[in-house]
Amino acid sequence: MAVVEWVPEEMSILQQYYPCARWESLSQKLSSRSRVAIYNKARMIGLKRRVSERGFTQEELDILRTYYPFAKREFILSLLPRRSWNTIRQKASQLGLKRTEFLRKFRQEQAKSLSKKITVFCANCGKKFEKKPSQLRKHNFCSTLCCNKWKLGKPSPSKGIRRSLETRKKISEMRKGRFTGAKNHMFGKHHTPEAREKCRQARMKQEFGKPTLPEVRFIGMRFKYRLPYTYVGNGKIWINHLNPDFIHDTKKIVLEIFGSYWHDKSINSHVDLQNTEDWRREQYAQAGYELIVIWDKELTKENGAKLLGKIPI
Length: 313
Ligand SMILES: [Zn+2]
Hints:
Helix content: 40-55%
Structural class: alpha+beta
Largest sheet: 4 strands, mixed
CATH architecture of the largest domain: 3-Layer(aba) Sandwich
Number of domains: 4
Bound molecules: zinc ion
Oligomer: single chain
CATH class of the largest domain: Alpha Beta
């Protein structure tokens, strides 16, 4: 096989382009030589490829320097169509460029969009109002009152839905040991009797601290008409696990003041069974007591004389 000698022009091309040019352009320029031949010749004269500097022309570097710190990724990619984002990032880090300005702007815009309020419509009354995007729900309400009105009479969303055995097992496993060991400083210990009494007192104070406003009104009425009733709503007397508001001084009669919100099922559909009139009447009857109920809406100044007919003396 005849060996074709390298001519000076080929040598100069090799020296100029071998370190940085791509293989495709090299083999185009030296079309009579194979890749192996080019490689061997370059090694013989001591040339090495500097791959990291390959490709990026002065123009491209200028684009990178001017736009990399603040422009959007898509914009930079459109200016440098031959580069992938990875190469651009590598090159930029070699040049000591950082996208600080872009990130600052990006975060500013994000914060802006988060704090920007959105106009929505109330699901109950259709009123227009503003809400943060993070607080949007499936149904939005202008007020708690609207929310309660809308919920009234509607079944609970979880009603009729039963979790599969698998899910229930998963939840059970998840909940095991949540309050044991180091997670609970009382684990394996017991309260002393004094501490328990202290807890009870605190609980009582929280629950029966002060008479409610309707109760205060009735206390005033009691003085005015000299009614033989005593206030025991602070947990003084318990009848069949129930604490009445007032008790008759001599007869077996208890009197309770009912607030509409807590006791009227037609206003609040979530009233507990033990707060309903019928249930309490039955419980008191079991202990031999008669229950008299006064609703808060009845406790007005004009209604005072009318109420007296309801209360046995
Ligand atoms: Zn509304």
